[in-house]
Amino acid sequence: MRVVAVWGLRATCTAIALCACMAPAARAATPASLDATFVPDRLGSRTTLEFGFAFYAPPGQVPPPLVQVDLRYPSNLGIGLSGLGLEDCNAQALEASGPRGCPPDSVMGYGVAFTGIVLGITPITESALITIFRAPNQEGRLSVLFYAEGWTPVETHILFPGVLLPASSPFGGLVSIPIPLVPTLPGAPFISVIHLHATIGPEKVFYYEHAGGMTLAYRPRGILLPPHCPRGGFPFAARFSFSDGSRSSASTKIKCPTRKQTRRGHP
């Protein structure tokens, strides 16, 4: 795991640290929201999962730094049969060369994170692009790597892992994601996540194969939706932990497609 943050071009700080608890007692929960959707939204078809979460703070403030996300997803999603992540990307190559160091066929999705800090009384925000890669399995479990790149006002290159774990019904599993603390200037606050939006699926993802002396680009198949919708929709839930010891949670459901949408999903 690597964290590098540069303020302008003058100050460079490196941290490989996670806070298990930075306060002796739990703080008030940080308000959070979660959203999710399938594109396209057709039962029995291949799709891209879009998801996002956001945190809220009083005016002139930012949420406490995020240190852990556990995102639960519905059962019967064909993530393992998605055709995503045909090759692995290892952390060493990603640290050394960035996304160019990984095979194109290891990309599983993209995203963007909006972050912020408060210096004095002034909130400062920035955005970072995220690429999600397939990583080598951990003890037989599907693993991913998140690589975030930001340039202004703070240059950041952040690498952190995620692993798919079991989850109790009505969920099919969860993605456990530890988030590293990202420094700025010495003595200044760590960066706080304000909003994140990401996709896992073929949207904007291209793979390549060689045939007949030519290199052909194609889109991977995508997540396979089940032929039937769970009663009430597809459930998602997330639990968030912050550096001050506080926690929060959020949940949402993707509504069942209409019959017309479902019919269009079949030949």
Q: What's the total count of β strands?
A: 16
Unreliable runs? 4-26
Main sheet properties: 14 strands, antiparallel
> Which percent range fits the helix content?
under 10%
Beta strand %:
over 45%
Instruction: Calculate Rg over CA atoms.
Output: 19 Å
- The overall pLDDT, averaged over residues, is 85
Shape: globular
Category from helices, strands and their pairing: mainly beta
Q: Figure out the total of helices.
A: 2
- C-alpha end-to-end distance: 45 Å
The SSE order reads EEEEEHEEEEEEEEEEEH
Number of domains: 1
Strands, helices and their partners?
Blueprint: E1 2-7, E2 11-14, E3 32-39, E4 46-55, E5 66-74, H1 91-97, E6 107-119, E7 122-138, E8 141-150, E9 154-165, E10 171-178, E11 192-200, E12 207-211, E13 214-218, E14 223-224, E15 234-242, E16 247-254, H2 259-264
Antiparallel strand pairs: 1-2, 1-9, 3-4, 4-11, 4-14, 5-10, 5-15, 6-7, 6-11, 7-8, 8-9, 9-10, 12-13, 15-16
Commentary on this structure:
By secondary structure, the protein is mainly β. Helices cover 5% and strands 51% of the residues. The chain has two helices and 16 strands. A hairpin with a 3-residue loop joins strand 1 (2-7) and strand 2. The relative contact order is 0.28.
